Batch of 3 targets.
Target 1
Amino acid sequence: MAKKKRSSGQKAPPVQGLLPVTMKINGKSHSDMVEPRLLLVHYLREVVGLTGTHVGCETTSCGACTIIYNGKSIKSCTMFAVQADGAELKTIEGLGEEGNLHPIQQAFWDNHGLQCGFCTPGFIMQTYWLLRENPTPTDEEIRQGLGGNLCRCTGYQNIIKSVKAAAKEMKK
Amino acid sequence: MIPRKFEYFAPRSIKEATSLLKKFGPDAKILAGGVSLIPVMKLRFGSPAKIIDINRIPGLEYIRASGGRLNIGALTRHAELERSKTVKDRVFLLSETASVIGDPQVRNMGTIGGSLSHSDPSGDWGAAIIALRGELTIQGPRKRRRMKVDDFLVDTFTSALQPDEILTEISVPIPPARSGGAYMKLERNLGDFATAAVAVQLTIDPKGVCTSAGIGLTAVGPKNLRAEKAENVLVGHPLTPKTLEEAAAAAAEDAQPIPDPLRGSAEYKKEMTRVYARRGIERAISRAKGGKK
């Protein structure tokens, strides 16, 4: 299950084949030694400790692991951490915080755009990218834009409502 | 789902990449967008010992119109081809094809060169590049060669690339006036591989006679296929409803599907090839008449 997180000050034992990576995540620089096969989503969750990005299907289908990589939305289960060396990433933790939600987060809250919430970080990050590409999407464009994200609870209607509400709020 | 261990290289030039490929031979695999390779590695269908990540090589992502051709760097993302105005205006078929690949996140990462090199018979690019009679540039450690896409796509998951070669550019002729293209894809849901798909590129003279036709098929054979019989039915003839029906039937004959437990029987795929060929030809004609290439 969850790997033990390296505590600061305690040096990890040298492991052969580790590579250095440095990336900016939510504006903060992180440097670590990683195995080349470590997936970016596992790096974010288990090394950096940002568990807001979820692991769903692990096969590039569900979109729960969606993050922003150099300005574009990607599925972080389908990229190695070493590929992101030098990159700028944004995860759900970089969007808003309790008491000061991002308009997209607030819109999902207000419109019941979630039930169990497992898929929500992915939907919100994909919405973040979609609204930057297209600030006034039609219903059809929202459906197409969120086509790479799966939700098994809501039936999607309230998610689409949430995206429309967020678009309206962000245009103000 | 964790892949087997591998050694990772991130060359900064094509020369460096091909020399790594030459050194490691079939043990090495090129990582482009990774949207096919990484799932293959996670499911352990394949476990290359060396990964050569070409994403740090500058100058492989471009879309350039020059000398009557559209030249595309192999590392160009599907999303760039989907939104590029140059592509929309000059070779609309490429724009339409890009827009139905995978899902938005996949299109932000996946590359045209990676898709063609992967040579998945369900890949969308092969059919479109066949319809456009595209040519590919391949760079080895010493030699560069150029070949037709028909020769590049050899078999299921098999391209003409040697272990020490990289696909660097895709080049298609920019269609003349009175040309139209369409990519018609049947998928169970957004993001799924095609059940069947048809790429059509036509040119019509002022009298309504078809002067050139390219038709490529997806997911109905061991690789993306050229529907040659269907092309021959169209070229040199006025595009009457009867000709269209004959061409669509010929496209179904050109298809060589095998049953797919998820996406339908061989008969179903053949029938869908006929239906989508007919719709694709109709759409291409209407675009040729509307002036959209």
Target 2
Amino acid sequence: MSKSLYEKIGGEAAVNAAVDIFYRKVLADDRINRYFEGVDMERQAAKQKAFLTFAFGGPNKYSGKDMRDGHAHLVKNGLNDSHFDAVMENLGATLKELNVPGELIAEAAAIAESVRNDVLGR
Amino acid sequence: MIHYDQETYKPEQNESVLDCLLRHGIAPPHSCRSGICQTCMMRAVKGNPTPVSQKGLKETLISQNYFLACSCIPQEDMEIALPDTQLFRKTTKVIDKALLSPNVLRLRLAAPDDYRYFAGQHTAIFKNKFLGRSYSLASVPGIDHFLEFHIRLLPDGQVSQWLQHEVHAGYSITISEPIGNCIYLDRYLERPLALIATGTGLAPLIGIARDALHKGHQGEIRIYHGVRTRHDLYLHDTLLKLSEQHSNVRYIPCVSRESVALPFHKGRANEIALNDIGNFAGWCVYLCGNPDMVNTTKRSVFLAGASLQDIHADAFIHSP
């Protein structure tokens, strides 16, 4: 059997390496950082970790409903495609920084892309 | 068996702590149930959590037996509690009191038997059964035979005023179990530490600095103490002495509301530290005191390169 995306990217160690880089990019990104203000940073980082695990094809039990419920208050505050695009951009840049090969980045991006409508409540 | 909130529950084979509690109609906070979101974090008061259930937790939490209830299949009897609960109280005696500045009272209590704590943790001091306030420990286990607190005297403070005016040496006083995650990690021995405090936020940080030195810390230690006027630098001489005794310790007194000349620095402690250090990659950062300072600095040092795993913070909220 061929290796899963999660294994190819490097599993949990890769998620741990990515979370600081990714979260730092998100907080520094003026297009989206207002959505991350006033939230406990450790809780937030745990959520970022869950998101990265998901995008890397790793073990997770998040459902479309979780994604909807978790972002509903942000959608009310104007969360839209442009913000989702910004997160995708930061995800790609993070993986690039970690020297993940382009085809694996594309796979991870496709997984993350699959929740766009749920996150945006459509 | 699982002991929780004065009841005992028997888990089925291969049943997690969380599932066992849920099956009995008890719902501690939880979300992903996959060991990722950390919502269901609890603390083992007795018995050891499984290593799997501590995966991904901050080391400061692991060393205090925190674990994720959703991924812990208990291997032995465990007594568990929600995070931030202080289970026991102990009564002890006041050893002495001294004013360190017009607004800061030093209180020393005899350390009760079996009172295990880490330097940098906090405990509640009770005026009576129902009224307690949280104070950080400034003492270090293994060095000090007493518990030391730096009490900020608030004009309307129900506990601080009582401590100042009515409590004397020999008085019996009740304190809670110590908790808190602002503690030194043994793996930091070679790393540079930035300790940034405002006001009595210095109490846990002097504890952490002395604890680190006691354990043989080799890396640099910078202590930034932020106050309004020079008179508020209530440990000035102690910290000067500490920096003279240890070549790796630097003490940077920061005064925000009056003009000062060196060795004092004019400005806010967090801003001076950010300027001074610049790139925080590799630094271990401890932040204690004013909640605004703590929260904005947490973010600033993270953006300046510190790893989230190495940022430890304790925001002091003053209530009358």
Target 3
Amino acid sequence: MPKRKAFINKNICVACGCCLKVCPKNAIEIFKGIYAQTHDDKCVGCGLCAKSCPADAIELTKN
Amino acid sequence: MKKKFMWYDYLWILSALYLILGFFNILFAWLGLLCFFIPLIISIVRGNKSYCNKYCGRGQLFSLLGNKCKLSMNKPLPNFIKSKWFRYGFLAFFMIMFFIMIFNTYLVFSGASDLKEAVTLLWTFKVPWDFAYTAGTVTPWIAQFAFGFYSIMLTSTLLGIITMIFFKPRAWCVYCPMGTMTQLICKAKAGTSKE
């Protein structure tokens, strides 16, 4: 079964950092204050970041 | 996995305190300049948004009210608010209003107009605020700036609370002028060519 991962739309990300705070795996960082970036190897696809994102910039995708 | 609470996770107390103090002595409004300069300095010097990410007491206050107190309906924001033109437009509008406030302070400084002991909410509604200031305590322009600055802080908190209730807790972060500005600074610092 393909694993779900968080995918961040860099164009609408406001780099507020809400996702960082909820990520249980510390799999997200803010790249130079511009947008959030996930580490696919750490992401477990729990979806907490997507739920918290005020800009709805995060989607869970199967890859 | 529970995250460790850091000292900066309690900065929401200062944000709440700031709003409360404005009801007792308007001169505390000057402290709000910290929320203006600290994020700007961090983004200019360090090129990151750690202010938003870690230290923003207002953001923490909104997530506290929205998540812990369950005051938020947790709905997605309308697309137009998330669009770039709205974010940059709101920043521009905010800056214009800020400079009008500075100009009003200047008018009082130069003696062209008198101190108005009022807080303007949503750039429209003038609320008498004389209970938080004893006339003559400081030079009039210092008090005028305090009234003007507190108006901005209270208005933006009000907008933030409204969007916190109807949308996601930290919906304010999407159109926060400081956030937009620091993100632009970070973009400029990182260079547009780089990924």
